[in-house]
Amino acid sequence: MTGFDADTIVTGAHVVTMDPRRPHATAFAVRDGRFLAVGDDDLVRELRGPRTVVRDLGGAAVTPGLIDAHLHPIQGIELTAGIDLGGLTTGSALLAALRAEADRALAEDSDPWVRGWNLDYDVFHELPMTAAAIEDAVRGLPALLIVFDGHTALASRAGLARAGITGARAFEDSSCVVVDADGRPTGELRELGAYEPVRLSAPALTRDQTLAVGHELLRGLRDSGLTGGTIMDGGFATLDLLDALEQGPGLPIRIVSAIDHEPGFDEERTAANLAMRDRRGDRWRGGVVKLYADGVVETGTAWLHEPDTAGAGLEPFWKDAAAYARTVRRYAEAGFQVATHAIGDRAVGEVVDAYLAAGVRSAGGAPHRIEHLETTTDRDVARIAAAGITASMQPLHMQWRKADGSDDWSHRLGPVRAARAWRVRDYWEAGARLALGSDWPIAQNDARIGLAWSMLRRRPGDPDAPVFEPDQALTPYQALHGYTVGAALAQGDADLGRIAPGFRADYAVWAENPLHVAPDDLPDLPVQGTVVGGVEPWPPARPHHSHALRTRIPSH
Question: How many DSSP H helices and E strands does the chain contain?
């Protein structure tokens, strides 16, 4: 084999390159994990050597491998313990599900708990969000039910007792143990800091089980065309797990892993975080810090310029808001890319201010990012675009909205702010960096569903479903860009997201060109295989239940 011979040649394809210099091709060659040449079949065949593997796709479509710009696959293993409560919107349905799970746990588990996730806030229009409301249904067992957004949970009395929660607690952030007039905890726990003690009191997977489930979950991501993702999983344990996966069964996709910095971190913990900047493996790396500027709209913890309809929304996540800006600067100067959760309009604006003050790129060159941006002002759309800050967004989070605005998100914001929802098209047209993702386990991790929501602004496969802000719908090309070029640049990878010479050879093979498939049909479009770094053998896609509300993780 000469220095110009390819390791692999792919021909007979409809290649969507996402490269403006050559938008379409029929063939490409790969050598040493990178695209060597992209063009027509005859041109690429000139690079064939005696040991080159040639694969004719017979007219199948190829796109760059998709990248989910924001998800929590490892943390999701912990948060999705127990039963999936998705789709239950009445108190009676919830109580029936809890009774059945309690009876199962009593019959089968040595330390019975009732665990559930993906719970809809609608349930609490009928039931109070209190331990007393679920006590009989959970048969007095310790219980923890996590709402779909991952920011609120409901614990039973025994669950609170297991965690030693007997009253209000002080937090450095906006976490809150809700208490009644007598100071007793009601069971409602707002933000991770409040409910994490209960979760940690419950039985957990062993390390071997976590490795097995994590590997299977990452393999499953490939079935929808994903070859990478930026994961916001928080701790050093995640980095250790990524190392263990890579040294064991292998990492099926590329990972950029963020670590959290919480408001209460002291200098010792901050120094430990900073020491993680250059941790990496063959298919994963760190170098990103995740911060929070607010919570969520539904519980009044999103940070808004004006109060929500319940009079809440005026408090930042950091009680010392100036400390947030200092922390941004500290990490940026140390070479970290900063990603900040900001949902409310004021939170977004304050993050932009902090980034502008610290410099909008890390010392390593990656642009800082804002995650979610559920409602934003015209001023901040323009500022984000002008500064080169990445808007990392998840349009499929609109699936909990209602046409009449009676859902908690819309009702809390009111019609004016709700109309400024998930402004992906405005960001695109302003010239902003736009990256798309799922935030799994908050929403489905099947990238085809995410693509469809970005184009439809409604539930795929249901033409009669309400369309939210139709002027914000993306074209097929724009949506694919958000999952390829946009997501790659968001994590500072200028050599991913395109099929072009010199780029890393990550690609997905589709039965049809996803740009030409009706968005309603996209969730069922077969992905015939994905390749990461040109590595063979070609992994066939396994059956993927794209219409399931969430990927199911076994009970712990």
Answer: 17, 23
The closest of 89, 70, 22 to 502, measured between CA atoms, is 22
> Angle 382-388-393 (CA atoms, 0-180°, nearest 5)?
75
pLDDT at 445 over 50: yes
Q: Are 424 and 479 in contact (CB under 8 A)?
A: no
From CA 212, how far away is CA 11, in angstroms rounded?
A: 36
Which tokens sit at 104? 């199962």
- Beta-ladder partners of 390: 369, 433
* Element of type H or E holding 10: strand 8-11
Strand intervals (E) in 210-283: 226-234, 254-260
Q: Which of 538, 450, 551 is nearest to 213 (CA)?
A: 551
| 153: β partners | 146, 189
Whether 75 and 99 have beta carbons less than 8 Å apart is answered as no
CA–CA separation, 197 and 75 (whole Å): 15
- At 30 the three-state DSSP class reads strand
User: In 91-221, which ranges are E strands?
Assistant: 114-119, 143-147, 152-155, 176-179, 185-190
Give the residues across from 143 on adjacent strands: 114
What are the pLDDT digits (tens) for 164-205? Answer: 999 999 998 989 999 999 999 999 999 989 999 999 999 999
What is the crossing angle of helices 345-358 and 321-333, to 10°?
40
Q: Which residue has the tokens 């736009």?
A: 434
- Residue labelled with tokens 């409604």: 458
Q: How far apart are CA 108 and CA 333, in angstroms?
A: 53
Strand partners, 62: 15, 509
Tokens for 513?
């060109």
Structure tokens at 191: 């933000």
292 forms beta bridges with 341
- Provide the edge-to-edge strand list for the sheet that holds 507-510: 24-25, 14-16, 61-64, 507-510, 527-531
- With vertex at residue 69, the alpha carbon angle to CA 330 and CA 429, rounded to the nearest 5 degrees, is 95
The type of residue at 212 is: A
Backbone Cα Rg of the chain: 23
pLDDT in tens, 202-218: 999 999 999 999 999 99
Tell the burial category of 127 from Cβ atoms under 10 Å away from its Cβ (0-12, 13-18, 19+).
Answer: middle
Which residues are 507's β-sheet partners? 64, 531
Does the pTM of the predicted model rise above 0.90? yes
SS3 481: helix
